[in-house]
Amino acid sequence: ALLDILKEVGNIAAGCSGTALSELLKKKISLEVPVVDIIVAYPENLKIKTEGERVVAISSKILTGLEGEVIFFLKEKESFRLIDLSMGMKKIPESYTRIFTQMGISLLKEVGNIVICSHLSTLGFFLKKILIPSFPVFLSGFVDEVLNITLSFYQEEDYAYLIETIFTVEEEKIKGSFYFLLPPQTAKLVTENLSS
Description:
- With about 200 residues, the chain is an alpha+beta fold.
- About 40% of the residues lie in helices and about 30% in strands.
- It has helices spanning about 1-25, 75-85, 100-125, 145-150, 185-195, and strands at about 30, 35-40, 55-65, 70-75, 130-135, 135-140, 160-170, 170-180.
């Protein structure tokens, strides 16, 4: 079934991402893929249960092989925790006011880029296509604002393949949501190729 293949794509990509991130951050990092789904790309359907919360999104357009976009979401507080863990800092109380530094943004973009490239190369292997992403774009803000920006070019009939990802960084779990956003003709092509 298509969902089984997408889960396999997610699991293989998670293994590759975990190895690359462990080397980059010099920390033991593993990734799990507990949820895979196919939904219509509309803000209400994206399973980001963070209404009223701030989130971070790393997005890349797919430049070759397919038409579409890849977006990786993290809750803002979890993105700060990922930065702290990566830099070997102790846990900072959530009551503290935090801002993103250039170093923090660069680190999150690099993490997002590794996860995005791993998923695209794995999906490309199954589709027998070379999928290359654009340079990652960093967005942060309230979830509704970020979704409106990232989904502004998509129609109600466009599709999203959701591959939820959980990072485990030295025993601490950080959850992210990973989306392939595809127009209908691309989604149909992917579905037919993966199902055959």
